[in-house]
Specification:
- The protein has a single domain, classed as Glutaredoxin, CATH 3.40.30.10.
- It is about 30% helix and about 30% strand.
- The protein has helices spanning about 45-55, 55-60, 75-85, 100, 145-150; strands spanning about 15, 20-25, 30-35, 65-70, 90-95, 105-110, 115-120, 120-125, 130-135.
- Strand 4, helix 3 and strand 5 (about 90-95) form a beta-alpha-beta unit.
- InterPro entries: AhpC/TSA, Peroxiredoxin_AhpC-typ, Peroxiredoxin_BCP/PrxQ, Thioredoxin-like_sf, Thioredoxin_domain.
- Belongs to the peroxiredoxin family. BCP/PrxQ subfamily.
């Protein structure tokens, strides 16, 4: 599994969103994209992060960004999460773990002495040319969108 760096081309992907529609990164060519990876729908940290993007969504759009969330949950779980919190952006179902592996965020984790594989919470800012401009590896879940706005100012 490769570790991606700023200045590299973002791997393209095609997967279904919470509405069963196929979404590809290449659909967003010419736009700035916030591609954020999170561990699990409807958990405290992931909910705080998604709601931060929701609450600042208009500001992000005004700055020229599209927001895409990715987790290994399925479409049904994403749809429930989107509906419960009124999320205005695409949530990609990566239940085959291809995208998380391509982006190097499927990692070994440790909780309560148990080791398991899971998604490292990471945000990629991808430019209109498909090049990774910034990578946020230490995501502040409650202020995730502000972290991005701060990078842009």
């Amino acid at each position: 599994m490769a570790t991606l760096n700023e200045g590299e081309k973002a791997p393209d992907f095609t997967a279904k969103n919470q509405n069963g529609e196929e979404i590809s990164l290449s659909d967003y060519k010419g736009k700035n994209v916030i591609l954020y990876f999170y561990p699990k729908d409807d958990t405290p940290g992931c909910t705080a992060e998604a709601c931060s993007f929701r609450d600042n969504y208009q500001s992000l759009l005004q700055q020229g960004f599209e927001v895409i969330g990715v987790s290994t949950d399925d479409e049904k779980s994403h749809k429930k999460f989107e509906s419960k919190y009124n999320l205005p952006f695409a949530l990609i179902a990566d239940d085959e773990k291809k995208i998380v592996e391509d982006y190097g965020v499927w990692v070994e984790k440790n909780m309560y002495g148990k080791t398991y594989m899971g998604t490292a919470r990471t945000t990629f800012l991808i430019g209109p040319d498909g090049i990774i401009k910034n990578i946020i590896r230490k995501v502040d879940t409650k202020n995730s969108s502000q972290q991005i706005l701060d990078l842009l100012s």
